[in-house]
Design a protein that fits this description.
Order of helices and strands: HHHEEEH
Number of strands: 3
Largest sheet: 3 strands, antiparallel
Number of domains: 1
Shape: elongated
Structural class: alpha+beta
Distance between the termini: 55 Å
Helix content: 55-70%
């Protein structure tokens, strides 16, 4: 199999695919929470339309869990999970939206375009190949925690 200076192409694809699949489960939980708050409370004072981008969802969810008394016992856990999503999201964005710019035996370098204050900038993200397993455990733990939280939130349904 083709080598990219220290990592096989199939291994790289497996890693990117795994991140993508796990992230889809995490973001689906955010969608579940968003739709729960939007549909159960039917209060458009937070926003008029259902938010779709990750940052919009997180902002909406923070407002929703803070605003509605019925969710106050879940607010702290929700904020903790949303903080974890924020921390992991940037690394996930590199894997999913980045182009492999270079590899070495120890490092993957992704390059992606990001909009900052209306200007497109190129971002380079470097990852130590050995840290992938830690990143994967963080993703899996966040996925499990967010699924458990979704179950607890659904118990609130009237």
């Amino acid at each position: 199999m083709e080598q990219l200076k220290g990592i096989e192409l199939t291994d790289l694809c497996r890693r990117v695919g795994t991140v993508t699949i796990i992230w889809a489960h995490i973001e689906r939980q955010l969608d579940n929470w968003r739709l729960f708050i939007f549909n159960v409370f039917k209060d458009d004072s937070i926003c008029k339309k259902v938010p779709f981008s990750l940052n919009q969802k997180i902002s909406f969810l923070r407002c929703g869990f803070h605003k509605f008394e019925e969710l106050s016992d879940l607010e702290s856990r929700a904020f903790d999970l949303l903080d974890r999503v924020n921390v992991i999201a940037d690394k996930r964005h590199a894997f999913v939206h980045g182009v492999v710019e270079s590899t070495s035996p120890d490092t993957l370098t992704f390059e992606r375009v990001r909009l900052e204050e209306g200007i497109q900038v190129i971002i380079k993200d470097e990852f130590d190949i050995d840290s992938y397993e830690t990143f994967l455990r963080e993703l899996l733990d966040l996925m499990g925690s967010s699924c458990i939280f979704s179950n607890d939130l659904l118990k609130k349904k009237h």
